[in-house]
Design goal:
165 residues; alpha+beta; Immunoglobulin-like; eight-stranded antiparallel barrel; 36% strand
Length: 165
């Protein structure tokens, strides 16, 4: 009978040395850490609210492109060159306003967004100043009075934009 008690008695080693202990608790601890990491990423880089021009209907989002249609009807188009901190825009339009607004927004970080006011320099040219170099941003050119807006497409070298409604 003393032999049976010796086999059933626990060893004098700590629980951390038992392999079954780690095989059971390691996946649980890993999933908790992964879940907390995912929560932290979601809080820091979460989705921004949709702009007023976008309506969410079920799984589909419909954008109102009234500004683009107005630009198309007015025959507005243009191209911009970015050279360091200088933005030079050539606009083709029936009437040229005194100022335009070029919005550059970063796909994931709102703090890196830019709004550049472009001032008329004559003959459909506009000049503006850029704080930081950009590339890969989403771009939109708009009249300051909100009459029209045009999305921009970056050139291959990320130094130029073309605006076609």
């Amino acid at each position: 009978m003393s032999e049976a008690l010796a086999v059933a008695a626990p060893k004098d080693t700590p629980a951390s040395r038992w392999p079954w202990h780690w095989l059971i608790f390691l996946p649980v601890v890993a999933s908790v850490i992964a879940g907390l990491t995912t929560l932290g990423i979601a809080i820091k880089y979460g989705d921004k609210p949709l702009p007023a021009a976008v309506a969410r209907t079920g799984p589909v989002q419909y954008g109102h492109v009234v500004g683009q249609m107005q630009a198309r009807e007015a025959g507005v188009s243009g191209s911009a060159d970015i050279d360091g901190s200088r933005v030079a825009l050539q606009l083709t339009a029936a009437s040229s306003p005194d100022t335009l607004e070029l919005r550059l927004w970063h796909p994931t970080e709102r703090s890196r967004d830019h709004v550049i006011v472009l001032r008329a320099a004559g003959d459909g040219r506009y000049i503006g100043e850029l704080r930081d170099p950009v590339g890969g941003y989403h771009a939109r050119l708009a009249a300051t009075d909100g009459a029209w807006q045009i999305p921009g497409v970056w050139s291959a070298d990320a130094r130029g934009l073309s605006f076609v409604p």
